[in-house]
Write a structure and sequence with these properties.
Blueprint lengths: L12 E5 L1 E5 L2 E5 L2 H9 L3 E5 L17 E4 L13 H4 L5 H10 L1 H4 L3 H17 L3 E4 L1 H9 L3 E3 L2 H6 L19 E5 L4 H5 L9 E4 L6 E4 L5 E5 L5 E5 L12 E4 L21 H23 L21 H23 L8 H18 L2 H9 L8 H7 L3 H12 L3 H24 L6 H5 L2 H12 L4 H11 L5
Parallel strand pairs: 1-4, 1-5, 5-6, 6-13
Antiparallel strand pairs: 2-3, 7-10, 8-9, 8-11, 11-12, 12-13
């Protein structure tokens, strides 16, 4: 059977731009793992875009793009939007300096990250690629569409608001919550319907000192804080996850709304933003592939896999192969669990899984894993040497061969570790009993060697000890 790399390349790709920090006196790029877990968990592949100088000119190399998730980061350069606050003289130079001192990690401007993310946001808007913006990502989306931001919510909005809201609390960073009112008829209201209070209230986390000042015209608010700050918005004309449409920004962090000391969400609806986003990403990918397959000579993004018909993502041949491989692994698993005591299995039924492992092992094994497997005398691609050394009878050898062909690399490594440990224990026991150099003992079978050890240590039952002495003449001297 030929190798089937298509099977590992059909999941849609979601681009996420990293954030830069300093660790051990050098820059390190990172993305919060909660985002990655949710994207993977709902069936897409996160592709991290490093915020490295020049990457903004290389975005075509990240195609195909089926979705973009932008999340936390530094303040957006005020020159990229209408700085109404500065024009009105609301923030003095002294106030701006106070903001920088209070929020040093956020107030620093990252021009490369701004450039990368604004270009990705505009690419999504132009091509209707699903977009989810969390915290800074929602602000990027608003700026990309012509909206503006408060440079500091506390200074610009706090004094004028009817109800003051603390939008960041460094003393209770993850535990801090403030109320928002979720507007009816919006996706957010649907996701949290069972958790909302009678007036649509919801307690959310908050990690920001900037926020949406003027919401771009195309967007509709989904949630408002008591001070009037927009905490969530979306484009109703670009929201239909089943059709691959999703353009949304959330100022709060649903992925971090977790109970203290636990990974359990505050509300069941917290994961819905990611679930519906990935649903849209999957639909967008399928819609793009169908359109490309139906249009002769259409441009196909690099790395895209075309379906054989507009209604199927996988071709019939790929589906047949997938079923054969799945059946092979299932049979091998049954043999492993039953110790080989199952109904006879045709060799060709096991070959599909074995050949799939052979064709993909080189790419999946690290150098260290290869070394460990070679040391135990067996690899995924060639287990014959190890199996022959076991000198099993025909039936047991066939069962062991099928079992090992269906094992993962980790299972094979565990098997090697187990036998190495057992070998070490046996060697130590033989040394203690003075049997390590006995050629007669070396010639014994495994069962006979075990019997000799128990006979010498006096732990063999009397009737078995008599049989052992008759067979080996009372043990070796």
């Amino acid at each position: 059977m030929a190798s089937t790399p298509e099977l590992s390349r059909v999941l849609p790709r979601v681009l996420i731009v990293s954030r830069r920090t300093v660790r051990k006196n050098k820059f390190v790029d990172f993305v919060g793992e909660y985002h990655l877990d949710l994207i993977v968990g709902f069936g897409a592949v996160p592709v991290i875009v490093p915020r490295v100088a020049g990457v903004h000119t290389m975005l075509d190399s990240f195609e195909p793009i089926h979705g973009v998730l932008l999340c936390e980061g530094e303040d957006i350069d005020p020159s990229l939007y209408e700085s109404e606050a500065c024009d009105a003289g609301v923030l003095s130079p002294e106030q701006l300096e106070a903001v920088r001192r209070l929020h040093p990690s956020d107030a620093a401007i990252d021009h490369e990250k701004d450039s990368i993310e604004l270009r990705l946001a505009r690419r999504c808007l132009k091509r209707n690629i699903p977009y989810l913006g969390i915290c800074r990502g929602s602000q990027v989306l608003n700026v990309a569409c012509g909206g503006s931001l408060y440079q500091d919510v506390e200074h610009e909005l706090g004094h004028a608001a009817a109800a003051a809201v603390r939008h960041i609390n460094y003393d209770d960073y993850d535990g801090h919550r403030h109320p928002v009112r979720v507007l009816p008829g919006t996706p957010l209201h649907e996701w949290f319907a069972d958790e909302l209070s009678a007036d649509g209230g919801l307690m959310v986390n908050s990690y920001h000192h900037q926020g949406v000042r003027r919401l771009a015209r195309r967007f509709v608010p989904m949630a408002l804080a008591p001070d009037g700050l927009v905490e969530g918005f979306y484009d109703p004309s670009a929201y239909s996850p089943a059709e691959g449409k999703f353009i949304m920004g959330l100022q709060f962090h649903p992925e971090r709304l977790r109970k203290p000391g636990s990974d359990e969400f505050d509300y069941p609806g917290c994961a819905r933003a990611y679930q519906e986003f990935v649903r849209a990403v999957v639909a967008y990918q399928e819609r793009q592939l169908q359109a490309a397959a139906a249009t002769p000579h259409a441009h196909v993004p690099r790395g895209a896999i075309l379906p054989s018909s507009p209604n199927k993502l996988l071709s019939k041949e790929m589906e047949r192969r997938r079923r054969a491989i799945s059946r092979s692994f299932s049979l091998a698993k049954d043999m492993y669990l039953s110790g080989g005591c199952t109904k006879p299995v045709e060799q060709r039924d096991l070959e599909a899984g074995a050949e799939f492992l052979e064709s993909n092992a080189a790419a999946s094994l690290s150098v260290q894993q290869e070394k460990r497997l070679k040391q135990m005398g067996a690899t995924v691609r060639n287990a014959s040497g190890y199996l022959n050394s076991l000198k099993l009878n025909g039936g047991r050898e066939a069962a062991a061969r099928a079992l090992m062909a269906g094992m993962t690399v980790d299972q094979l490594a565990d098997l090697a570790s187990f036998y190495q440990t057992m070998g070490k224990i046996c060697s130590e026991c033989r040394t203690e009993l003075g049997l390590s150099s006995s050629p007669e003992l070396t010639a014994m079978t495994a069962g006979d060697r075990a019997g000799e050890v128990t006979w010498r240590t006096g732990t063999m039952p009397a009737d078995l000890a008599w049989e052992h002495r008759q067979k080996f003449g009372g043990g070796f001297k």
